[in-house]
Amino acid sequence: MPQLTVRGIEANTMMAISRPLIEELAAVCECGTDNFTVDCLSVTSVFDGERADTYPFIEVAWFERGREVRDRLAEAVTRHIRLAGIAEVEIAFKVYREDAYYINGIPCE
Question: Which of 90, 61, 76 is nearest to 28 (CA)?
Fold first, then answer.
């Protein structure tokens, strides 16, 4: 945790930037790089009866770390995506509560 779920960006692009991206995000979150996962979804988008390009979108699922950390993380992700040649990306945060999150049946609270 955190988990980045990516759509509209090729897996090869994410692979190319993943190491420096995750190293920076780990520094921002003050945790190890092994706490992060990046999942690239293969999505077929449709508009007006035709296939359409999928808009670059990244969902970050995590335990809340405050507005300052969230802003810094969003800025870092956006910068790395833009350096990879993608002009626009949207990022949304999905917050988990420790008392509602279980690892092997044991709550994290």
Answer: 76
Strand order in the sheet with 37-40: 37-40, 3-7, 57-63, 90-96
Indicate yes or no: pTM above 0.85.
yes
Residue 38: phi, psi to the nearest 5? Answer: -125, 115
Q: Residue 93 corresponds to which tokens in the numbers above?
A: 């945060």
Please, are residues 8 and 51 in contact by the beta-carbon 8 Å criterion?
A: no
Q: What is the dihedral of CA 24, 64, 77, 87, to 10 degrees?
A: -170
Per-residue pLDDT for the chain (109 aa), expressed as one digit of tens each?
A: 899 999 999 999 999 999 999 999 999 999 999 999 999 999 999 999 999 999 999 999 999 999 999 999 999 999 999 999 999 999 999 999 988 999 999 988 7
C-alpha to C-alpha distance for 21 and 34, rounded to whole angstroms? 13
Q: How far is CA 64 from the centre of its chain?
A: 14
- Give dist(CA 78, CA 71) in Å, integer: 11
